[in-house]
Design a protein that fits this description.
alpha/beta, Rossmann fold, Nucleotidyltransferase, domain 5, 2 domains, seven-stranded mixed β-sheet, 16 helices, 16 strands, about 35% helix, globular
């Protein structure tokens, strides 16, 4: 049975629609018609799928962006093929062959676990945290051997750049780079006008698909590039002569991040950056115990009591045998300044820190057109919590030298199970040995 859809693809996207590869990476200039092509590719894929009750998805960095950018297009082009009225609250359409196409956001990727997919298109991949793709989206495709398209516009050399390079080097994958100067989609006069009104680096990134153009507003871009050039981002083993400590950024629906590190006199070795969400604090304490952590650093707000348990994060941590240190309260800009001073001495272990390295490169401020400057507060996105835990690291070790570092003797193993300690919470908060906010130079 032949089914026609009311879609006339632009010439530049015909190779994309005719691809045979299971995996593809597509880099497109702005206003190329990428979203329309992606939506119709999902419709074509849904119609061609021979499995029972196909499911496909368009995945944007967040749910609202998916709705704003692609929902009207999906309803428009799927209209002649619909089996029922589009589901507005779920952003889902059902076709006459029982295939379902969803619009999804990757900001809470764990909510997609358990879902199967026969095909998926990730739009603006550079703005989605890598772990959401590798740990959630890819497994959704595995049992039905679904296909995947990674698409978007460059935002520096990150996991989207890596995806393109791998696709270009693999004959079993499809790749396409659509530059405005080559696509023929936008008139040359319009491109010349836009170029005259844009910063050259912005134009190269947005219209010429340049990954080398610097990410505008990147906070730690220079420091992370220097770290890679100095071979401080590489695989290394734990130093058996140094204790393993952890510093934490707390969240619940947002990510909680644990940064496991070793500190010598003149360097910080970040061994692993672990993140999770919607878990009780005991889950993270288990992760610490599994790694035989010595010292635990918590943000200053960890003393607030949980309404459900009636205990604070600090109290729960003490009950597991640790005497946590508190990161001093500070302004974000001061913390960023301290972190920049520390980063030249930091090493990151691959592959356990690969996600963290990408986050540090992506962490940025947004340009404010009204005031003609970058906003003071960084953009809150997938990179924020990893950058925050590095900021805590910078704040703590900007005030601490090895010679000043007090040693805390932890309870031995048989004491850890007990609930009684010879100190109170007031002792913990008021002592400079456990509250680094009280340290003085």
């Amino acid at each position: 049975m032949n089914i026609e859809i009311n879609y006339q693809p632009r010439q530049a996207f015909i190779p994309f629609h005719n691809r045979k590869a299971r995996f593809a990476t597509i880099v497109c200039h702005r206003r190329a018609g990428k979203t329309v092509a992606f939506v119709n590719d999902l419709i074509i894929g849904a119609l061609e799928c021979t499995l029972n009750r196909p499911q496909l998805a368009y995945i944007a960095p967040d749910y609202q962006q998916a709705k704003r950018v692609a929902w009207e297009y999906l309803k428009q082009f799927a209209a002649p093929l619909l089996a029922a009225t589009p589901h507005e609250s779920e952003l889902r359409v059902t076709l006459k062959n029982a295939a379902k196409i969803y619009l999804l956001g990757a900001e809470k990727a764990d909510s997609l676990r358990g879902m199967y997919l026969d095909g998926a298109i990730i739009d603006e991949m550079a703005q989605i945290r890598p772990s959401a793709i590798s740990q959630v989206i890819l497994p959704c495709l595995s049992d039905r051997q679904g296909w995947l398209v990674n698409g978007g516009t460059p935002r520096g050399k990150n996991h989207f750049y890596d995806s393109l390079r791998k696709a270009e080097a693999d004959p079993l994958q499809f790749s396409m780079v659509l530059k405005a100067s080559q696509s023929g989609i936008l008139p040359k006069e319009e491109l010349e006008l836009i170029r005259s009104k844009m910063d050259a680096s912005d134009y190269d990134q947005e219209y010429e698909c340049s990954f080398t153009a610097s990410l505008k507003g990147a906070i730690y871009g220079v420091e992370m590039e220097t770290a890679e050039n100095e071979n401080r981002v590489r695989e290394f083993a734990l130093d058996p002569n140094l204790p393993l400590d952890v510093i934490c950024d707390l969240g619940y629906t947002d990510d909680t991040v644990l940064l496991f590190f070793q500190k010598s006199r003149n360097q910080v070795l970040v061994h692993e950056v672990y993140s999770n969400n919607e878990q009780e604090w005991d889950v993270y304490l288990d992760e610490m115990e599994n790694r035989n952590v010595r010292e635990v650093y918590l943000p200053h707000d960890a003393r607030a009591k949980n309404l459900q348990t009636g205990r604070s994060i600090v109290e729960q941590t003490i009950r597991r045998g640790y005497r946590p240190r508190l990161v001093p309260d500070h302004k974000v800009r001061d913390g960023i300044s301290a972190t920049r001073k520390l980063l030249p001495y930091v090493y990151w272990n691959l592959p356990l820190c690969s996600n963290a390295v990408e986050a540090m490169k992506s962490y940025r401020r947004e340009w404010d057109d009204k005031f003609g400057c970058y906003r003071e507060r960084p953009v809150h996105d997938w990179s924020s919590h990893i950058a925050d835990v590095h900021r805590y690291l910078g704040v703590v070790f900007s005030q601490l030298t090895e010679s000043e570092k007090p040693r805390i003797i932890l309870p031995n193993e048989d004491q850890r199970a007990g609930a009684h300690y010879a100190f109170s919470l007031d002792d913990l908060f008021s002592s400079p040995r456990t509250n680094s906010g009280l340290w003085r130079d």
